[in-house]
Write a structure and sequence with these properties.
Four Helix Bundle (Hemerythrin (Met), subunit A), two-stranded antiparallel ribbon, 58% helix, 7% strand
Length: 158
């Protein structure tokens, strides 16, 4: 299963790369521009939020590490955001390797104050990927609201 999930994540990286390449076309200030229709969040903020979701679920929750989340204010340009995702790629690889033969293993532990959560590595991996794609769609919508014409960033592109 490790190889299958690794290949799946390579598809995610390719799609993310298409998004990053597209975002290179945006004015740098538009990357940071808060949009009222998105709760005054910016494209950069959603990208860092995606990275932090990977860390929260895969590293801190599943592997019981306490890695600090990324501070969006420390990442003012697209190159810096790309570097964040290089770290995420390493973390995902570590997660996949850690759970190589145990993707259905239940993980039960406290998540919030009085709540216990039971998940599996497969659920967590699926969650972070679909979460990223959800916000990728929002980022493309945000760019449209800023006057740009989004490109295809799907897994299968023409």
């Amino acid at each position: 299963m490790y190889i299958t999930f690794l290949h799946q994540y390579q598809l995610v990286i390719s799609s993310r790369g298409a998004l990053f390449d597209y975002c290179e076309l945006l004015k740098p200030e538009d990357l940071l521009k808060p949009l009222p229709s998105f709760n005054n969040e910016s494209i950069r903020n959603l990208m860092i939020h995606n990275a932090n979701t990977y860390l929260s679920w895969l590293v801190n929750y599943a592997m019981h590490k306490q890695q600090n989340l990324f501070n969006k204010e420390h990442h003012k340009d697209l190159n810096s955001v790309r570097q964040v995702f290089e770290e995420i790629n390493l973390a995902v690889n570590e997660f996949l390797h850690h759970f190589t033969d145990t993707f259905e293993l239940p993980i039960t532990q406290p998540k919030k104050e009085d709540k216990i959560l039971t998940t599996t590595p497969l659920q967590l991996f699926t969650h972070v990927i679909t979460h990223e794609f959800h916000h990728k769609g929002q980022i493309l919508n945000m760019s449209r609201q800023l006057g740009y014409t989004p490109v295809d960033t799907d897994i299968i592109r023409f």
